[in-house]
Amino acid sequence: DTEVTQTPKHLVMGMTNKKSLKCEQHMGHRAMYWYKQKAKKPPELMFVYSYEKLSINESVPSRFSPECPNSSLLNLHLHALQPEDSALYLCASSHQGGLPASYEQYFGPGTRLTVT
Amino acid sequence: SQQGEEDPQALSIQEGENATMNCSYKTSINNLQWYRQNSGRGLVHLILIRSNEREKHSGRLRVTLDTSKKSSSLLITASRAADTASYFCATDSGAGSYQLTFGKGTKLSVIP
């Protein structure tokens, strides 16, 4: 199974809502990532989890709260978002070990988030 | 700042022609990867080339890497309409980080 799944596919939320994005992989990958991608732009790294511990936080606002409950799951909790947070949110995973970043990342299909 | 910069930003070719995309980067790297993204979907890994490699092939894909010029190229031969997508290069920081930085991408349109 070389698939990364993300739910939901689409999400519309108001600025006062609390919602969560979910990501799952069963490839035994121990590195998992959240990216944000605006239209016609490249993905921008938000968070990296390594062995279920947060290893990189790219100065993301606290209204985004990541969580890695176990080695297969990655969540992104959303609260009090702004309209400019509307984007495609991508989850990815990769092997870990040996030289960092020497492994391909497997991406999920993304969650299209619209903040109204 | 963006590590990888692709050019051209957009490329339109006829089916059967070859497509070449270029990527330049600024700092030393361990490896460089190319990804494809169909409209509004997740990215798909195409090929990884390590800093000590100069050329790599995978099916209709050919990637070159010139570390002295800090540049890479992706050649897609005998293009198909299904190759229509955005193509991104991605580099690591070369500093032991898991972080990949993506270039701005080239949007390829293959006309049947």
Blueprint of the fold:
The complex is a heterodimer of chains A (116) and B (112).
Chain A: E1 4-7, E2 10-13, E3 18-25, E4 31-37, E5 44-50, E6 53-57, E7 64-70, E8 73-79, E9 87-94, E10 106-107, E11 111-115
Chain B: E1 4-7, E2 10-14, E3 19-25, E4 31-37, E5 43-50, E6 55-58, E7 61-66, E8 71-76, E9 85-92, E10 100-102, E11 106-111
Parallel strand pairs in B: 2-11
Antiparallel strand pairs in B: 1-3, 3-8, 4-5, 4-9, 6-7, 7-8, 9-10, 9-11
Low-confidence stretches of chain B: none
Give a quick account of the main beta sheet of chain A: strands, pairing sense, barrel closure.
7 strands, mixed
Number of separate helices of chain B: 0
Helicity of chain A, as a percent range = under 10%
- The beta-strand count of chain B equals 11
Name the beta content range of chain B.
over 45%
Helix-strand string of chain B: EEEEEEEEEEE
Please tell me what the overall shape of chain B is: globular
Mean pLDDT, all residues of chain B: 91
